[in-house]
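Quick one, T. Sequence first:
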Amino acid sequence: MKSLITILLAAGLLISCADEQAQQTTGNDHDIAERLSELGIELTEPGPPVANFVYAVQTGNLVFLSGHGPDRPEGGQVTGKLGTDELTLEEGQEAARLTGIALLASLQQKIGDLNRVERIVKVNGMVNADPSFTQHSQVVNGFSDLMVEIFGDKGRHARASIGMSSLPGDIAVEIDMVVEISD
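Structure tokens:
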């Protein structure tokens, strides 16, 4: 009798786990273009890289995206150093969000359809910061929160948030990422 109870409890646990996994998977099944529209985000065609690199490289089901900066919709980039009078924490978070939009534009150019995203896997966020600034992770949350807003659980990722003494062109934030896609 005891082994029967153990089997039934284990079966119930397996069913519960399967239900939870199914909810996580189906909870993210929305059209990404529609979601971007709901959020008021328009992805524009990226211009050519400004140095000797490419924006994205695919190997198997992984896409590695080069570091991108915070492109303003009206042109130019958000520049300045966090932890000084140049930029507030909130402005840094917005810069990280804009960087996420730039990354998604390059990803879309590479794979054609953002609905192919299976998971945002790994992110490196670099923050142009004064040595006394310690809120790097809060700045990069501007990016991470956007990925979850767009992709749901598929947007949750492993991440590093690093303070830098400078970044190219004095941009406020540079972020690169690795994305898993479907065939």
